[in-house]
């Protein structure tokens, strides 16, 4: 899963770009790690002035390498940031409806953020460290081997062993990291839950209770992170100790084998110093690589990345000669639940308004969702009296407005409608209580009205969307629940006026509204 995801990110950035970046990193680090050689050469007594100037210039270039690497890395990281999020977003938007209804938005948002962050960090600490360490080990092994082949190999053996020990220690840390990630997502979810229930919380005076809950979650998070950090710190400390011991052994053996000629001793000491300084971070950096890989693995699994819904055969059949939307022997049950429908046969006349009535829990909303294609029935067929997929509009019970202008909300998705026409409809449905000016319509988002959009006004905006988009099928789920008597009469008049040919199925609970419908279908409890 992680491999597939990272491969996708790499492909989007482009393999030639990545190869070029790696070559640049390799050369830049080679120049940087030449410093022990340049310093040793500078201290040689017999050098000409020209040689000294050249060496000083080379040293200056070498010292510039780290900032140069960092600035190139930055533009690379921004590409990783964009594509890692883009791939996750594509994976999420292609999920079936049940994914969105089952997974809390806080979780999805938190994991997308976390995986893409880990991906960026992985690039920085992963790719960067691998190239940096490889260049250093290759260069210094060669430089030491030129002086004494045994010391060169001893260096390579000791420092490779050190890296292997670091890797082994990092692996032990895996599970803790996954746990820390989960507790971080809990905090995020809690904040979103608090925000969406703010009215209930304030009305029931339960701020203290909520604070205690949050304290508990924060404490859990703190403890898990402390645990992870403690293991990481202990591992780094041990590795730092190990590297110093190894360097001491090489120094003693090196001086014995290479000799104590001034420039050779200086070169050996400098190489070891550079190795310690750069490699001492290796343990932590490797732990970070492991941590980021774990974060990506855990986040992808929570987001169900790569897990696509088994493609059911569509239950829809199109027949342009048919006169009704027909449910034929439809059976449907939610996951591990009792059947909502068993061999259901129902018909809704094309071009007519049908009220769907019945007691709570008989499956009225489920029926509409089957018609939208959100859910696939386990068996049966739905005949649609059209040549191909008709234009459909669905207003669920809990429909929300987009955080976009009211105009964009009414004309969704992208209907090209003149402002004057929309204003006429606004007047007709009495939405002038909210929309006074063109700015109210085209510039203000629902949030800009400072929560002053009432439930009824929201329903009016959503209803205007149905009028403007002129769909062939309209599915309404208790769309008048927040409207007053007068507005209810107006909206039914508007339906007759603007949507005379649409096939409308509307869940209705109020008996008084049934008079506006051509047909009534009653769903009964078995
Ligand atoms: N997402 C879901 N997962 C599992 N069960 C569900 C889900 N949605 C609805 N149900 C169950 O399916 C049955 C039918 O629910 P549905 O919402 O379709 O009924 P309804 O007739 O629209 O009810 P109401 O009049 O209360 O809105 C109920 O028993 C409900 O608990």
From TrEMBL:
Protein name: ABC transporter ATP-binding protein
Origin superkingdom: Bacteria
Transmembrane segments: 12-33, 53-72, 237-258, 264-289
Database matches in SUPFAM superfamilies: ABC transporter transmembrane region (SSF90123), P-loop containing nucleoside triphosphate hydrolases (SSF52540)
Record keywords: ATP-binding, Membrane, Nucleotide-binding, Transmembrane, Transmembrane helix
Domain ABC transporter: 325-526
Protein's cellular compartments: Cell membrane
Membrane topology, as annotated: Multi-pass membrane protein
Domain ABC transmembrane type-1 span(s) in chain numbering: 19-276
Database matches in SMART domains: AAA (SM00382)
Organism, as annotated: Lactobacillus kullabergensis
Main location: membrane
